[in-house]
Design goal:
The complex is a heterotrimer of chains A (about 250), B (about 270) and C (about 250). Chain A is mainly α and about 250 residues long. Chain A has ten helices and no strands. In chain A, α3 packs across α9, α8 runs antiparallel to α10 and α9 runs antiparallel to α10. Chain A starts with a helix and ends with a helix. Chain B has two domains: about 140 residues, P-loop containing nucleotide triphosphate hydrolases (Rossmann fold), CATH 3.40.50.300; about 60 residues, no CATH class. In chain B, about 40% of the residues lie in helices and about 25% in strands. In chain B, the strands form two sheets. A six-stranded mixed sheet of chain B has the order 5-6-7-3-8-9, with helices on both faces. Chain B has a three-stranded antiparallel sheet with strand order 2-1-4. In chain B, β8 and β9 form a beta hairpin. Chain B starts with a helix and ends in a 6-residue tail after the last helix. By secondary structure, chain C is mainly α. Chain C has two domains: about 30 residues, no CATH class; about 210 residues, MetI-like fold (Orthogonal Bundle), CATH 1.10.3720.10. The two termini of chain C are about 35 Å apart. The relative contact order of chain C is 0.13. Classes of the chains: A mainly alpha (about 250), B alpha/beta (about 270), C mainly alpha (about 250). Chains in contact: A-B, A-C. Chains A and C meet through α1, α4, α5, α8 and α9 of A and α1, α4, α5, α8 and α9 of C. The structure holds adenosine-5'-diphosphate and magnesium ion. Magnesium ion binds next to α2 of chain B.
Chain lengths: ~250, ~270, ~250
C-alpha cells in the first residue's frame, strides 16, 4: 500500500525536479553557476566527452566494486563472528558504529599517505561500504525463525551445524540486502576518495571542473556520480529479489 | 549420574518412557509479572503408548511438550525421559518432534528436509530410508519439490517424515494438523494412525480436537486452564485399526460426549 | 567493577584496534614520520593544542549552525506541509528526490552556486540536515491525518489544536531520529565544505598538512575529526534512545 505511493512520489518528484531545474537554469535565477538541465545533458552526451566520461566511470566503478567487495565482505565476516560468539556483540556493535561515524573526508588524507592515490578511493569505498553491510548482515543472521531454531535444538544440532545449515542460508536474502545498501556508499566513497589526487575518476572530474570553473561539466559529473550510485543500488536490488525468491 | 553404567541400563529396562513428577512452570513477563503455565503436573507414559494432551488453548499443552523435549526447563519438579534428562535424549538424537508450523527449511527440497536429522546427528544420509519415508507419508514423486510448492497438508507430511527419520524412541507432536482444513486433517489422522502402528514409537501429541485425540490415542490426558494442570485421564478403549467407521460407533460417541463434558467442566467459571 | 566490565564489553574492539596499532608501530619500528602511533599523536595534540582548537571550534560552529537551521527549518517545513496538505503534495516528492542526491555530488555544486564563503558552508550544512529531517518528520506527522473524524475534531478542535495536541507528539520520535542523523551529517557536511572551499576548520588543516606532507599534523587533525564525529554520533544516539523510551 505504502510502497507504490512512495515510488509514485519519487517519480513525480523526479519530473518536478527536472522541470524546476530547467526553468531555474533558463531564467538564470542563480546566475551562470546554475545551468539548465538541457545544457548539462548536452555536456553529458556530447560525443567528444565520451572517452573522458567512460574512463572516469570505469575508474570509479572499479574502485567501488573493489571497495564493496572488501568493505562489504569484512562487514559480513564480522557480523558472522558476532553471531558465532555472543560475548563479542556489544563491543563489535560499538566498533562498527565508530567506523560508521568516521567522516570520510577526515580519513581520506591519511589513507592517501598510507596507500597511495590509486588505492585511496578503494579504501574510502571499503570504509563506506562496511557499516551498511555489517548492520544488514547482523539483521540477516537473526532471520532464522524460532521454530527452526527449536527444530535444530531438539535434533541435537551442534553450534557449527546451526550456523552453516540454518543461520547462513536463512541470512542469504538479508546478505544480498546488505550489499544493496552498501553499494551506493561504495560508489560515493570512491568518488570522495578520488578528490585527493586520483589520476582518473568521477570524483576527479567533479573536483577539477569545479576548480576550472567548468560549471556544466561540474553539474554533469555530479549527476553522473548520483546516477552511478543509483545504478549500484538498482543492480543489487534485482539480485536481492532473486535471493529472496530462492531462500524464503 | 553416569558412574554406574550397568545399573543405569538395568534401571531403564523397567523405566516408563516418560515420568513427570510435580512439574510447575512459570514464565517471567518482566516488571515482576509472572504467569503460571503449569502446576503440579504428575504423569507417567509407558513405552509404545500413544498419549494425547487435550485441553483448551492456553492450558499449557505446548509448554508441557516443550518440557518433555528439553526445549523448556520446568520451574519446579522433574521430567525424566527414558530414565534420564530430556537433554540426554536430544544429544543421543533419539527424539522426533513435529511443530504446529511445519518448520521446514524453505531453501531445501522435500528429501533434503527429511534428511536433516541425519546431518545434524552427523550420520551418513541413508538414501533408502529417506525414500522409504517419502513413500510412507505418500509423497513419492515430490522428492525434489520445495516447501512453497506444496500444500499445507503435504508440508505437514514432510514434517512428520522428518520427525521419524532417525527412528526416534520418542515422538512429540504439537498440534501437527492444527493449521489444516477439516478434510485434510481427518485424512492425515488416519495416516498418522497407520504410521504409528507400523513404527510403534512412543508418541505424545498435543491437540485441542476431541475427534483427533480419540482416533489416535491409547490414553487422553485432559488438561485444564488457569492455572494449567491435569484435570483427568481417559483410557480410549476403541479397537484398532480405527477407521471412518470408528467415528460412527456408539463407543466413540460415548467417549466424545464424556470428553466434551470434561473439557467444558475444565473451563474457568465466570466468577473466578 | 560492574561499570568497568560494561565499559570493556562495549569498547573492547575499539580499544583493541588502538592497542594493535600502537603495538605494530612500536614492534615493527614503523617510521614515526609516516605512521605515528596513537601515543605520539596524543602527545602531538597535547604539545600544541592551539593549532587544533581554533579549527575544531570553527568546524563545530559551522556544523552547529547548519544543524540548528536545518533541523529547525525541516521541522517547520514539514509542519507547514501537514497544516496545508495541498502544499505537501508538491513539496514532499521533491524532497524525497533531493534527499537521495549524495553529498559528494551536492556539496561541490552548491559551493559553486552560492560562491565560496562561510555563509555557503552554513547553507550546505543546513541543506544536508534539512532534507532528512523534512522527510522523516513528515512520515511522523503522516500518522495523524490532518482532517480526522476522531474525538478531537468532533469536540470542535481546530486544526492548530490538532497540530499541537496530536501531530507534534506523534512527530517527536522521528524528530529525534533526524537529530541523530543530522548530528553526523552536519559535521561531515562542514568538513566537506571546508575542504572544498578552503574555509578555516579541521578539513582545511587536513588539506594543508597533506600538501606540506606534515604527517603529525595530518594524523592529529584526522584523529580529532574522527573523535568529534564519533562523540556526536554516540551522544545523539543516546538522545534518540531516551526520546524513544519516553514517547513510544
Ligand atoms: N515463552 C513464553 N513466555 C511467556 N509466556 C508463555 C510462553 N510460552 C507460553 N506462555 C504462556 O503459558 C501459557 C500456556 O501456553 P501454551 O503452553 O502455549 O498453551 P497451549 O499450547 O495449551 O495453548 C499461556 O498463558 C501462555 O501465554
Ligand atoms: Mg500450543
Amino acid at each position: 500500500m505504502k510502497r507504490p505511493t512512495r515510488t509514485l512520489q519519487m517519480a513525480l518528484g523526479m519530473v518536478a525536479l527536472c522541470v524546476a531545474w530547467e526553468l531555474i537554469g533558463r531564467l538564470q535565477v542563480f546566475g551562470p553557476t546554475f545551468p539548465p538541465l538541457s545544457t548539462v545533458f548536452g555536456v553529458l552526451f556530447s560525443p567528444d566527452r565520451q572517452r573522458l566520461f567512460s574512463s572516469a566511470i570505469g575508474a570509479t566503478g572499479t574502485s567501488a566494486v573493489l571497495g564493496l567487495t572488501i568493505g562489504g565482505g569484512i562487514g559480513i565476516l564480522i557480523a558472522a563472528m558476532r553471531q558465532a560468539i555472543t560475548a563479542t556483540r556489544p563491543g563489535l556493535d560499538r566498533f562498527a558504529a565508530a567506523i560508521h561515524a568516521i567522516p570520510q573526508i577526515g580519513i581520506a588524507p591519511v589513507l592517501i599517505v598510507l596507500l597511495g592515490r590509486d588505492n585511496a578511493p578503494i579504501a574510502v569505498a571499503s570504509i563506506a561500504a562496511f557499516f551498511p553491510s555489517y548492520a544488514a548482515a547482523t539483521r540477516a543472521f537473526d532471520a532464522a525463525l524460532t521454530a527452526h531454531h527449536d527444530l535444530f535444538t531438539v535434533l541435537g544440532s551442534r553450534r557449527s551445524n546451526r550456523l552453516l545449515m540454518l543461520e547462513l542460508p536463512a541470512a542469504v536474502p538479508g546478505l544480498a540486502d546488505a550489499l544493496r545498501l552498501a553499494a551506493p556508499g561504495a560508489v560515493l566513497g570512491a568518488v570522495l576518495g578520488e578528490w585527493f589526487g586520483a589520476p582518473r575518476g568521477v570524483g576527479l572530474l567533479i573536483l577539477s571542473s569545479s576548480q576550472a570553473y567548468d560549471i556544466p561539466l561540474l553539474w554533469a559529473s555530479a549527476l553522473l556520480a548520483t546516477v552511478l550510485a543509483m545504478v549500484g543500488f538498482g543492480f543489487f536490488t534485482i539480485l536481492q529479489r532473486a535471493a529472496a525468491r530462492r531462500f524464503a | 549420574m553416569t558412574n554406574s553404567h550397568p545399573i543405569q541400563v538395568a534401571a531403564t529396562l523397567d523405566q516408563p518412557a516418560i515420568s513427570l513428577a510435580n512439574i510447575g512452570k512459570e514464565f517471567n513477563l518482566g516488571r515482576r509479572r509472572v504467569v503460571t503455565a503449569l502446576t503440579g503436573v504428575t504423569a507417567t507414559i509407558e513405552r509404545g503408548e500413544f498419549v494425547a494432551l487435550l485441553g483448551p488453548s492456553g492450558c499449557g499443552k505446548s509448554t508441557l511438550l516443550r518440557i518433555i523435549s528439553g526445549l523448556e526447563k520446568p520451574t519446579s519438579g522433574t521430567a525424566l525421559v527414558e530414565g534420564s534428562s530430556p537433554e540426554q535424549l536430544i544429544s543421543d538424537h533419539r527424539l522426533g518432534f513435529a511443530f504446529q508450523e511445519h518448520a521446514l527449511l524453505p531453501w531445501a527440497t522435500v528429501s533434503e528436509n527429511i534428511a536433516i536429522p541425519f546431518r545434524l546427528a552427523r550420520r551418513p544420509i541413508d538414501r533408502a530410508r529417506v525414500s522409504e519415508l517419502v513413500a510412507l507419508v505418500g509423497l513419492a514423486g515430490f522428492e525434489s519439490a520445495r516447501p512453497k510448492q506444496l500444500s499445507g497438508g503435504m508440508r505437514q507430511r514432510v514434517a512428520i517424515a522428518r520427525s521419524l527419520a532417525l527412528a526416534p524412541d520418542l515422538l512429540l507432536l504439537d498440534e501437527p494438523f492444527g493449521a489444516l482444513d477439516e478434510i485434510t486433517r481427518r485424512r492425515l489422522n488416519f495416516e498418522l494412525a497407520r504410521i504409528w502402528a507400523e513404527t510403534g514409537v512412543t508418541t505424545v501429541m498435543v491437540t485441542h480436537s476431541v475427534d483427533e485425540a480419540l482416533l489416535l490415542a491409547d490414553r487422553i490426558i485432559v488438561m485444564a486452564t488457569n492455572p494449567g494442570r491435569i484435570e483427568t485421564e481417559v483410557m480410549v478403549d476403541l479397537p484398532r485399526p480405527r477407521t471412518a467407521e470408528t467415528l460412527g460407533s456408539a463407543r466413540f460417541g460415548e467417549l466424545a460426549t464424556e470428553l466434551i463434558r470434561l473439557l467444558d467442566h475444565s473451563e474457568p467459571s465466570d466468577e473466578s | 567493577m560492574n561499570l568497568a566490565r560494561t565499559f570493556f564489553s562495549r569498547w573492547w574492539a575499539v580499544i583493541a584496534v588502538l592497542v594493535l596499532w600502537q603495538l605494530i608501530v612500536t614492534v615493527f619500528n614503523v617510521s614515526q614520520f609516516l605512521i605515528p602511533g596513537p601515543v605520539v599523536i596524543g602527545q602531538e595534540i597535547a604539545r600544541d593544542p592551539l593549532t587544533y582548537v581554533a579549527p575544531l571550534l570553527s568546524t563545530v560552529r559551522t556544523a552547529a549552525i547548519g544543524f540548528v537551521l536545518g533541523v529547525g527549518l525541516g521541522y517547520v517545513a514539514s509542519s507547514v506541509t501537514w497544516l496545508l496538505p495541498g502544499l505537501g503534495g508538491v513539496v514532499t516528492p521533491l524532497a524525497l528526490v533531493v534527499r537521495s542526491v549524495p553529498f559528494v555530488a551536492l556539496v561541490p555544486v552548491l559551493a559553486r552556486v552560492f560562491g565560496y564563503s562561510d555563509q555557503t558552508a552554513w547553507i550546505i550544512c543546513t541543506i544536508v540536515c534539512f532534507f532528512p529531517t523534512f522527510v522523516l518528520v513528515s512520515t511522523g506527522f503522516a500518522d495523524v491525518p490532518a482532517n480526522g473524524d476522531d474525538l478531537f475534531s468532533m469536540a470542535g478542535a481546530s486544526r492548530l489544536d490538532r497540530y499541537r495536541l496530536l501531530a507534534v507528539p506523534a512527530s517527536l520520535v522521528m524528530l529525534a531520529t533526524s537529530i541523530r542523523i543530522s548530528a553526523s551529517t552536519s559535521i561531515a557536511g562542514a568538513l566537506v565544505a571546508e575542504f572544498l572551499m578552503g574555509r578555516p576548520g579541521l578539513a582545511y588543516v587536513l588539506s594543508v598538512a597533506l600538501g606540506e606532507l606534515d604527517m603529525k599534523t595530518l594524523w592529529a587533525a584526522a584523529l580529532i575529526a574522527i573523535v568529534l564525529s564519533i562523540v556526536a554520533y554516540l551522544l545523539a544516539g543516546q538522545f534518540e534512545k531516551r526520546v524513544i523510551a519516553r514517547w513510544r
